[in-house]
From TrEMBL:
Alphabetically ordered keywords of this record: Glycosyltransferase, Transferase
CDD domains: GT4_PimA-like
GO molecular function terms attached to this record: glycosyltransferase activity
Pfam family name, one: Glyco_transf_4
Organism name: Dactylosporangium vinaceum
Enzyme Commission number: 2.4.-.-
Lineage: Bacteria, Bacillati, Actinomycetota, Actinomycetes, Micromonosporales
UniProt xrefs under SUPFAM superfamilies: UDP-Glycosyltransferase/glycogen phosphorylase
Protein name, per record: Glycosyltransferase family 4 protein
């Protein structure tokens, strides 16, 4: 029988629907399907959410309380409240393998005066670099505190990584990022790619009709994800392909800015913002698209949108940023734009839309063996192997 596992993270789906949140929940569900009892420990995002619940997927979620984001003392109180909540949840579950996915809650494993329990840590991204761009507008962080907060978070990440029994990364790009934080951990880290539900994200049974170009992307509306640059590229694309349309699934603090951008560029009816969408609508977006675009401006630990689209049989144009080039490495080199600049994105989109033979060849090659290596049964199996290795020393 496999030892029980506790996944420690910041937040989990469906409470929040970002890439990390979906990854942790889907990994937990995959582990349960492999007969591994699995609990997620995450923060409680709303008073309406129960402190403890078990979902239809068999995953138990334990939510700990955190201070309100708009509290002037949020930045001070949050680490201590989080550490206390996580520590309590873990102490109530002795004999479990601990698998961390976010640095701040994992500080609970480093407290003085307690017997140290071994833990595995997956380095998804350097969170300290995302602090200002990804979390902007979600809590009060006065400008004088920004640089110290980033440095404190960097040190926390380094301590968490350094204290892990084993570390995994989702891509070689993320190994490079980890090397800047903890070189020895990066050298020893094992690469286990992100997971995709390849039963759900799969090609349509019937080929899509050859219609006007439909470009799709699923991105948080933040500076890092490059949605602003992608939309800025659309006037040039439309000059070449007047019937083209860009559909964006996702939400974020830049939505109002992007809505104004669409209006100022005269792109109403050519660019659609869907906001948050269901899994069914997301899959439909991938399947119906002529081309998916991942216009990442900075950081991309794995590239979930890229992986899901490829699993659905739709090729993806990516920027040469983060792990995305690794994911499309089996496709034509033209699926990697020169940069995330709007002009380069436009040029890459136009070249692909002009050459439907390249798109058709890519569709015939997908999903392919590489995509199958990202399926959750395969990914969960790699982790179960690691859990078994450290189970002997857990307390």
């Amino acid at each position: 029988m496999h030892p029980p596992v506790v996944l420690v993270t910041n937040a989990t789906a469906p409470d929040k629907l970002g890439g990390l949140e979906r990854y942790v929940r889907e990994l937990a569900a995959a582990l349960v399907r492999c007969d591994v009892p699995t609990t997620i420990v995450a923060k409680r995002l709303s008073p309406d959410l129960p402190p403890i619940e078990t979902g239809d997927d068999g995953v138990t979620v334990v939510r700990h309380a955190v201070p309100a984001k708009r509290s002037p003392l949020f930045a001070v109180q949050y680490p201590y409240r989080t550490r206390s909540g996580v520590r309590t949840a873990i102490d109530r579950r002795p004999g479990t393998v601990i698998h961390g996915h976010f640095p701040v809650p994992m500080l609970a494993m480093l407290g003085p005066g307690r017997s140290r329990r071994p833990y595995l840590y997956t380095f998804h991204a350097p969170v300290h670099q995302e602090l200002l761009t990804e979390r902007q507008g979600t809590y009060l962080l006065p400008r004088p505190l920004q640089r110290p907060a980033v440095e404190l978070l960097r040190r926390a990440e380094a301590a968490v990584v350094g204290g892990a029994t084993a570390v995994t990364v989702l891509s070689e790009y993320m190994r490079e990022q980890l090397a800047q934080l903890a070189p020895q951990a990066a050298d020893a880290a094992r690469l286990i790619p992100g997971g995709v539900d390849t039963d759900w994200f799969s090609p349509p049974r019937q080929p899509q009709p050859d219609t006007e170009p439909l470009i799709f992307t699923a991105r948080r509306l933040t500076p890092r994800t490059g949605v602003v640059e992608c939309i800025a590229a659309m006037p040039a694309v439309l000059a070449r392909h007047p019937g083209a349309r860009l559909v964006v699934a996702g939400d974020g603090h830049l939505r109002t800015t992007i809505e104004r951008q669409i209006s100022s560029l005269g792109l109403e009816g050519r660019v659609d913002l869907l906001g948050r969408v269901s899994e069914a609508r997301l899959r439909e977006g991938y399947r119906s698209a002529t081309l998916t675009v991942m216009p990442t401006a900075e950081l991309e630990g794995f590239g979930l949108t890229t992986a899901e689209s490829l699993a659905c049989g739709t090729p993806v144009l990516v920027t040469p940023v983060g792990a995305n080039p690794e994911l499309v490495g089996d496709l034509d080199p033209r699926f990697v734009a020169r940069s995330g600049d709007p002009a380069d994105l436009a040029d890459a989109m136009i070249r692909l839309l002009d050459n439907r033979a390249v798109l058709a060849a890519a569709r015939r090659a997908l999903p392919g063996p590489r995509v199958q290596s990202w399926s959750w049964p395969v990914v969960a199996g790699h982790y179960i192997e690691l859990y078994a290795r450290q189970a002997w020393s857990r307390s």
